[in-house]
Amino acid sequence: MAITVKYFAVLRERFGKSEDSLNFEDGITVADLWEKTMNGEDMPKDLMVAVNMEYTKSNTLLKDGDEVAFFPTVTGG
To answer: How far lies 64's CA from each of 4, 10, 17, 40, 46, in Å?
Structure first.
């Protein structure tokens, strides 16, 4: 199944790109996707995730054609 992954803020800087189009097996969750795209790195607990422009949780099951966006939390003062 095809998934579009979007990276924002420091993640975009880290990877030098804002988006990937990737193919995965059926039955993958958001957390699985993070682990696969980050070479086994654990998903940060404070990471915000949206699937098809709606905020969601890490255990959300993905479908073919989904767009997943990863947002680091924003702090300011």
So the answer is: 9, 27, 22, 22, 26
* Averaged pLDDT, 8-12: 85
What is the tens place of the pLDDT at every residue in 12-49?
888 788 999 999 989 999 999 999 888 888 888 888 99
Q: What is the pTM of this model?
A: 0.86
CATH code of the domain containing 16 = 3.10.20.30
**Maximum alpha-carbon separation in the chain:** 42
Entry field: residues in the chain:
77
Q: Say how many domains are in the chain.
A: 1
Answer whether residue 77 is part of any domain. no
Distance CA 40, CA 57 (A): 19
Coil, strand or helix at 44: coil
The DSSP bridge partners found for residue 22 are 3
